[in-house]
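Record type: monomer structure entry
Structure origin: computed from sequence
Chain ID: A
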Amino acid sequence: MVTQDQSEVVAFLESPSAHGGQAVERVDTHASVVFLAGERALKLKRAVLYDYLNFSTADIRKAMCDEELRLNRRTAPAIYRGVVPVTREPDGSLALGGSGAPVEWVLEMRRFDQDALLDRLAERGALPLDDMVPLAKTIARLHAGADTRPDYGGRESMRRVVEGNAIAFAESGGALDVHVCRAVEQASLEAIERHGALLEARRAAGFVRQCHGDLHLRNIVLLEGAPTLFDAIEFNDDISCVDVAYDVAFLLMDLWHRQLPRHAGVAWNTYLAETDDLDGLPLMPLFLSCRAAIRAKTSVTQAPLAATARTRAALLVTAQEYLALAGEVLRPSPPRLVAIGGLSGSGKSTLAQALAPSVGAVPGAVLVRSDEIRKRLFGVDPLVRLDAAAYTAEASHRVYDTLADCAARVVSRGHSAILDATFLDGAQRQAVEQVAAACRVPFVGLWLDAPPELLSARVAARRNDPSDADAAVVSGQLGRDLGSIGWHRVQAGPEREVFPAAMQILRDCPAQT
């Protein structure tokens, strides 16, 4: 519902005279009007009142501009510049930041290239996989520094999300399959009931925070080469004050829907490596499903408002895709434990990353890498090189104990894991097999064989990698007695050859005990 007439302000901001004579481009949404001129963007909040959004008065709009500035400066200080008044001057004219009385408020932002938005890059097939690492680290930093909000989240919050989606589906006029809608609703409510205690425990423990709230690819831009989050939700704390795992689930769902499972896997595993939030694993199917269902809801409700029949039809297809995904991620996927061993340079990490999206529930297996564990145990960044003291027998024993513990934490929470380590000692291999047996999940061991010259060439070519192995380390490993290796042997080589061979082994091995 529109609450005030803003036509005079809109006409002023749309005029080049308000922008030093520069041409103006206007972008309209249901909640705002953005005016682009030169290197600046001015965002005017519409005078509207919805059940989830209140911009009904100038004072409220000013407060919401201030809040949007505060929240988004956490991640995008270079984009969000300040709140500027539109003033009524003594001669009756309007001015931007003039000396007269404020009649409206706009958020001043830095204009950026729209082609640098991650959704645009994904549509062009140009979204760099490597950018998922800094992106996930940025999200982890946001969550770590965000205010805790125990007054939100928990069991009832997720129930409201599911019920709100169900109402929208029921009002879609048959655009969505009613049986699928009911199945998604029922499975979601059952998941909430099953994990209600965990939802409440995380709320009490501080995992519900003032998050981004709308963390999909369209709200992330490559700014000076760095993935930058913007347009965090300021107008409704029910949307932004959520479990941190629910926040990151939006990004993972978006990547998966765009058929970028490896991107989702890298983002997911980087986030977990930064946060160690393995306790949230049982909630991911519910969180991913709710995010997909929300997208189905927004798509189906936008369809009747589309300007053309073609756009309307496309929105309905998109809604059906999201609804199907919402159901898919809720279907049980039994956990399994996969270990990949081999000498340094045999390609374990590359294979692990390639396999992860195909192992277990969406968004794929949790990767546990011994090199990263060693760096964490010694309190250094993964790319900092450690000295010999970090590679004593005692230190390695700690690393493999931690590796086994992480594996147990993951699979005992119903999620699959892939372990990435050399496993040169038979006792190390036996230990992870025992983890699978104790947790009653299937185990698959893969051993990568490679000729010495390939191993040496690969470790010499490494850049920005947590592994400290060099040619001397490889030489020492080649001289070791590895004992009997009962794991599946795979000949190392190009990923196009190794990946299908490993996948065939996984397909041939029972997925359940």
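Annotation 1: The chain has three domains: 7-111, 118-328, 337-508.
Annotation 2: The longest helix spans residues 309-328.
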